[in-house]
């Protein structure tokens, strides 16, 4: 191994959300001189505006730093950022695979959380050297000794020389850097072997096309290299290789052990799939690096423009977004109630919210979103298996042999006082109890198997509210299981509103139907006439409510009042109108389409 490669350290930071990953990353950048104070606009690694606002990391990135260690040598440190949410587990696992070591950041007041554990297991699977960092020791409620003990008890890591840090106050930063140099091994790999680069992220640049973030494992790549994507066989010519410092900087080549980016006039991020291996088309590697997986959407919903005329704009916006988001899928669909729109697939609920928000904010679209659902597997009586991504597409009853739905294994970590509350919630959500473990410090890890559909229906919000915010959740898909499922339809004014149809468990169908009809009665504003709401299973009406007719014009209230009040009221109505959809003779607000998410029966 050359000296350059021997002095490389590739590492990432794993942490539960809010334990201080971004703050620590910024301190490390600052300490190594990668940033001047002025450049340090808040948190650099969370680069998108949306991320900054929501305070979460949704895209991972890599930064190359130079660090002169106490041994007098200069080391090249590549810090690879990882997303911090369950929706993006696969991306986390690929960014971990690009590293030899990880800083495990644990909040000194909170201790270990479910997400911390999930990420530690991913890191251990990837054979990473783990350096525990107990952060936020400046907090009055910090209990670093307890947290160190917890790291030993729960994870089984030696925490005796865990670094005590405060990313906020700048304590323990140099110690962290010294530990990275001393403990994390340099990357292996032969710079003269056939090229193997692992893509751990990609993004779309309007001028340069899809740019891949890569870890070079074997060989080297430079401008002019003809590269091949091993999953698809597609070839491209490299026009630029470089590193982020954090500003992008071209370099002559990237060799084994290095981390950087590759530009090759690639038009679509779909051709730069996370986890794929890039090789040299003329001297290809025999096989790809292990671990490539096509990501599959778990959650689907319909997206419709409020104004039918915006349909083409919505299509353009989705096309543009997809350039940046290889995990987003969509296809046109038509709803009797909502007209032309798209059925979109997402990695999870957060991913769905992010896409929806970007469409509205960056593309200025007003959208109606239908309630999210999972993909069902229908085993038909004729032996065919049909995948259903939209409740309205469920085959007729007589054709259905069985319906299967996706299940997850959920790990909930919670203080022992709340165990009862969590168990009750999991029962309500059709969960099957698997295991309960007491871990240090009065905390309990509960394992349940639950239908994914129940998780996407307000599980997380309920969990947070019933545990006063103390519980943390992690889940993974464990496969499909047969369930007693039925389709629940809603009729408004006698008309079936397809966008309201949901698939529910037979035992819950009656309660859900009643609750839904009741919610809709409150959510749909009064019209000039009476509107009956019916919840129907098959041919059977299971609930009926009535929206009473409106009596007075809203403005009538203001007669005699001052004009500014009147204007305010009109303005307010206009605001409200934005998210209304005229369906037949009834105006339905966005909230009504999501009503099913907020009934807990
Ligand atoms: N008191 C104190 N607060 C800290 C420290 N480090 C981070 N914080 C605060 O904790 C909050 C979360 O920090 P982030 O760095 O954004 O956490 P994160 O882990 O990157 O969160 P995600 O990006 O959502 O995964 C912020 O309000 C920080 O200011 C620390 O050492 N002490």
From TrEMBL:
* Binding positions (GTP): 18-23, 135-138
Per the UniProt record, the lineage of the source organism begins with:
Bacteria, Bacillati, Bacillota, Clostridia, Eubacteriales
* Localisation per UniProt entry: Cell membrane
For this entry, the protein name equals Elongation factor 4
Q: What does this protein do?
A: Required for accurate and efficient protein synthesis under certain stress conditions. May act as a fidelity factor of the translation reaction, by catalyzing a one-codon backward translocation of tRNAs on improperly translocated ribosomes. Back-translocation proceeds from a post-translocation (POST) complex to a pre-translocation (PRE) complex, thus giving elongation factor G a second chance to translocate the tRNAs correctly. Binds to ribosomes in a GTP-dependent manner.
Give the gene symbol. lepA
Note the topology in the membrane: Peripheral membrane protein
List the Gene3D superfamilies hit by this protein, alphabetically: 3.30.70.240, Elongation factor 4, C-terminal domain, Elongation Factor G (Translational Gtpase), domain 3, P-loop containing nucleotide triphosphate hydrolases, Translation factors
What reactions does this protein catalyze? Answer: GTP + H2O = GDP + phosphate + H(+)
Q: Does the record's keyword annotation contain Repeat?
A: no
Q: Which UniProt keywords apply?
A: Cell membrane, Elongation factor, GTP-binding, Hydrolase, Membrane, Nucleotide-binding, Protein biosynthesis
Keyword field contains Ubl conjugation: no
The enzyme's E.C. designation: 3.6.5.n1
Q: Which organism is it from?
A: Heliomicrobium undosum
Provide the coiled-coil residue spans. none
Matches recorded under SMART domains: EFG_C
Identify the main location.
membrane
Top EC category: hydrolase
């Amino acid at each position: 191994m050359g000296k350059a490669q021997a002095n490389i350290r590739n590492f990432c930071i794993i942490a539960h959300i809010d334990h201080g990953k971004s703050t620590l990353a910024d301190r490390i950048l600052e300490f190594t001189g990668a940033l001047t104070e002025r450049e340090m606009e808040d948190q650099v690694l969370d680069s998108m505006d949306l991320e900054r606002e929501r305070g979460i990391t949704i895209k991972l990135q890599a930064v190359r730093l130079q660090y002169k260690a106490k041994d007098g040598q200069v080391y090249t440190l590549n810090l690879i950022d990882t997303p911090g949410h369950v929706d993006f587990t696969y991306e986390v696992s690929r960014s971990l695979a690009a590293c030899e070591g990880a800083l495990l950041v644990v909040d000194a007041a909170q201790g270990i959380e479910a997400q911390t554990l999930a990420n530690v297991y991913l890191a251990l699977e990837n054979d990473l050297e783990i350096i525990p960092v107990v952060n936020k020791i400046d907090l009055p409620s910090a209990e670093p000794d307890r947290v160190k003990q917890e790291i030993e008890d729960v994870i089984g890591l030696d925490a005796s020389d865990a670094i005590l840090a405060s990313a906020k106050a700048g304590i323990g930063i140099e110690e962290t850097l010294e530990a990275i140099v001393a403990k994390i091994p340099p990357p292996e790999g032969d710079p003269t072997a056939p090229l193997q680069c692992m893509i751990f992220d990609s993004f779309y640049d309007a001028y340069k096309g899809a740019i891949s973030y890569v870890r070079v494992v074997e060989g080297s790549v430079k401008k002019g290299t003809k590269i091949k994507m091993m999953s698809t066989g597609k070839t491209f010519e490299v026009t630029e290789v470089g590193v982020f410092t954090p500003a992008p900087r071209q370099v002559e080549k990237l060799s084994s052990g290095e981390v950087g980016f590759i530009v090759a006039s690639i038009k679509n991020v779909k051709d730069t799939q996370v986890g794929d291996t890039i090789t040299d088309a003329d001297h290809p590697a025999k096989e790809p690096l292990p671990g490539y997986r096509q990501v599959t959407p778990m959650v689907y919903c319909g997206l419709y423009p409020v104004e039918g005329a915006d349909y083409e704009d919505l299509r353009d916006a989705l096309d543009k977004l997809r350039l940046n988001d290889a995990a987003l899928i969509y296809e046109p669909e038509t709803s009797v109630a909502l007209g032309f729109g798209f059925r979109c697939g997402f990695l999870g609920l957060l991913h769905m919210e992010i896409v929806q928000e970007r469409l509205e904010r960056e593309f200025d679209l007003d959208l109606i979103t239908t309630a999210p659902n999972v993909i069902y597997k229908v085993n038909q009586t004729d032996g065919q298996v049909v995948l259903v991504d939209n409740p309205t597409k469920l085959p007729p009853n007589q054709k259905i042999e069985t319906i299967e739905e996706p299940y997850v294994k959920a790990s909930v970590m919670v203080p022992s006082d709340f165990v009862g509350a969590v168990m009750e919630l999991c029962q309500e959500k059709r969960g099957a109890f698997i295991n309960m473990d007491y871990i240090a410090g009065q905390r309990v890890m509960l394992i349940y198997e639950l239908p994914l559909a129940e998780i996407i229906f307000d599980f997380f919000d309920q969990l947070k509210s019933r545990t006063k915010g103390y519980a943390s959740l992690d889940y993974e898909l464990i496969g499909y299981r047969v369930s007693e499922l039925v389709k629940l339809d809603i009729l408004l004014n006698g008309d079936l509103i397809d966008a309201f149809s949901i698939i529910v468990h037979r035992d819950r169908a009656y309660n859900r139907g009643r609750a839904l009809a009741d919610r809709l009665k409150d959510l749909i504003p009064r019209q000039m006439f009476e509107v009956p709401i019916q919840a129907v299973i098959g041919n059977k009406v299971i609930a009926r409510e009535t929206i009473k007719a409106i009596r007075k014009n809203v403005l009538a209230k203001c007669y005699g009042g001052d004009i500014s009040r009147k204007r305010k009221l009109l303005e307010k109505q206009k605001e409200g109108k934005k998210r209304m959809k005229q369906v037949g003779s009834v105006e339905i607000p966005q909230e009504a389409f999501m009503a099913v998410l907020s009934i807990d029966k």
